[in-house]
């Protein structure tokens, strides 16, 4: 099987030699779905090489980086990764090889092996369920660096060529929550709603810690400026299901939610909000063009700083961190421009809160700002080391706050508490 892959990779490499030695991007499909091109070369050709804007700096680089994406550019989640990968590889003057629509199954292992056999020195995968298959490939190709977003097992696997990465996106969601709270205040002041009607809705994919951390930080951001805020959360059981996400948004709106946000990847919820005239905070990118009347803001992780870091590490022969966590300071946690639905004063409120987060004057999960079952949280053992049984193993309450993605801990979120003020409508997923 591996011999066959190497023969096939020789054919691939031969065709690539016809292209420019400057940065190129190409897109391959590892499933039966239609292949998509790289974001920088969206002209229908999956193999055309393009000259990088920053190729002068590292034009002679032979480094190739392989990328595995769960979906394609139609998913806001994957599009965010695709755009960052294209930008980072162009700036570094290296070749990017894309594989889109790769499920969270054996297909991921096969795609990772194909990229390694094709000469990629780095292979990156973007979805939580890719992890076990990336680890399997990493064991087979010790000379290749395998990097994975949102994973939890790098620090316990002990492989020198397998790494996890994430960012403090809970801080970005907190800032987006401030924008939501400012909007709720505007609605209260205008008489559109009363204080006790300041109820938000949230569409989550699964009841994973990453999702829980995200919607809780968003809620705490909103409540920091609008104290009467409450929130209902519904789950879809899928990262990308446009119908379920649209239905979820409509259900929340029918329940009296006057503002909607999400941690799911399609345009289902934002377009439902636009149709209903309900303000919306999206995720992974602006939805202003599709939702000009209801879009407030979006938070996202900019993966370009991490890509630049791992490319530089491989080129210079330095170690890649087992767990890497991007921050506001590294430029990894960002907000889009404000939409027309944002309330007056929102930009200033966000700027002030961002300064406070960077300085440590404010912590997203300050235990003075929330309760659990009516009580203050003084101690919590979180699942940080991630053994096979997902055992709670680390005290994470430090100096009066829950230390999410703290220094020395794993990069992926582990906040999994249900705090007061948030109602979960279904938890089957």
Q: What this model shows, in words?
A:
The protein has 429 residues and is an alpha/beta fold. It folds into two domains: 2-149, Response regulator (Rossmann fold, 3-Layer(aba) Sandwich), CATH 3.40.50; 169-301 and 334-424, Rossmann fold. It is built from eleven helices and 18 strands. The strands form four sheets. It has a seven-stranded parallel β-sheet, with helices on both faces. Strands 13-11-10-9-7-8-18 form a seven-stranded mixed β-sheet, with helices on both faces. A two-stranded antiparallel sheet has the order 14-15. β9, α9 and β10 (280-283) form a beta-alpha-beta unit. The radius of gyration is 22 Å and the shape is globular. Mean pLDDT is 87; it is low at 1-60.
Topology:
Layout: H1 2-16, E1 25-29, E2 64-68, H2 76-92, E3 95-100, H3 106-117, E4 122-125, H4 131-140, E5 145-149, H5 154-157, E6 162-167, H6 169-190, E7 199-204, H7 209-225, E8 230-235, H8 242-254, E9 259-263, H9 268-276, E10 280-283, E11 295-301, H10 304-316, E12 323-326, E13 333-335, H11 346-359, E14 381-382, E15 394-395, E16 397-398, E17 401-402, E18 422-424
Parallel strand pairs: 1-3, 2-3, 2-4, 4-5, 5-6, 6-12, 7-8, 7-9, 8-18, 9-10, 10-11
Antiparallel strand pairs: 11-13, 14-15, 16-17
Helix pairs in contact: 1-3, 2-10, 3-4, 6-7, 6-11, 8-9
């Amino acid at each position: 099987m591996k011999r066959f892959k190497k023969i096939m990779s020789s054919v691939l490499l031969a065709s690539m030699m016809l292209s420019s030695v400057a940065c190129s991007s190409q897109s391959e499909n590892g499933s039966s779905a239609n292949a998509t091109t790289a974001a920088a070369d969206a002209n229908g050709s999956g193999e055309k090489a393009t000259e990088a804007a920053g190729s002068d700096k590292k034009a002679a680089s032979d480094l190739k980086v392989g990328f595995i994406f769960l979906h394609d550019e139609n998913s806001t989640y994957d599009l965010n990764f695709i755009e960052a990968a294209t930008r980072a590889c162009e700036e570094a003057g290296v070749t990017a090889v894309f594989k889109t629509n790769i499920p969270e199954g054996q297909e991921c292992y096969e795609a990772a092996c194909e990229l390694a056999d094709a000469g990629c020195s780095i292979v990156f995968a973007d979805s939580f369920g890719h992890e076990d298959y990336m680890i399997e490939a990493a064991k087979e190709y010790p000379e290749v660096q395998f990097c994975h977003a949102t994973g939890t097992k790098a620090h316990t696997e002990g492989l020198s060529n397998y790494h996890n990465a994430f960012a403090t996106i809970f801080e970005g969601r907190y800032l987006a929550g401030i924008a939501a709270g400012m909007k709720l205040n505007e609605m209260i002041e205008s008489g559109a709603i009363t204080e006790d009607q300041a109820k938000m809705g949230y569409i989550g994919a699964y009841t994973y810690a990453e999702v829980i951390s995200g919607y809780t930080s968003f809620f705490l951001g909103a409540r920091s400026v609008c104290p009467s805020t409450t929130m209902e959360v519904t789950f879809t059981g899928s990262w990308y299901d446009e119908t379920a996400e649209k239905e979820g948004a409509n259900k929340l709106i029918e329940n009296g939610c006057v503002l909607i946000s999400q941690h799911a990847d399609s345009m289902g919820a934002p377009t439902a909000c636009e149709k209903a005239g309900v303000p919306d905070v999206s995720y992974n990118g602006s939805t202003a063009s599709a939702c000009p009347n209801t879009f407030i803001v979006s938070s996202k992780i900019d993966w370009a700083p991490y890509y630049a870091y791992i490319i530089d590490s491989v080129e210079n022969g330095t170690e890649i961190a087992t767990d890497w966590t991007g921050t506001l300071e590294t430029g990894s946690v960002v907000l889009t421009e404000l939409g027309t639905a944002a309330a007056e004063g929102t930009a200033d409120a966000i700027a002030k809160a961002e300064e406070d987060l960077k300085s440590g004057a404010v912590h997203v999960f300050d235990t003075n700002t929330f309760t659990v079952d009516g009580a203050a949280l003084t101690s919590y053992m979180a699942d940080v080391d991630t053994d096979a049984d997902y055992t709670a193993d680390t005290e994470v309450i430090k100096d009066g706050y829950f230390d999410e993605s703290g220094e020395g801990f794993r990069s992926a979120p582990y906040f999994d508490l249900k705090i007061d003020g948030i109602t979960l409508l279904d938890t089957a997923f």
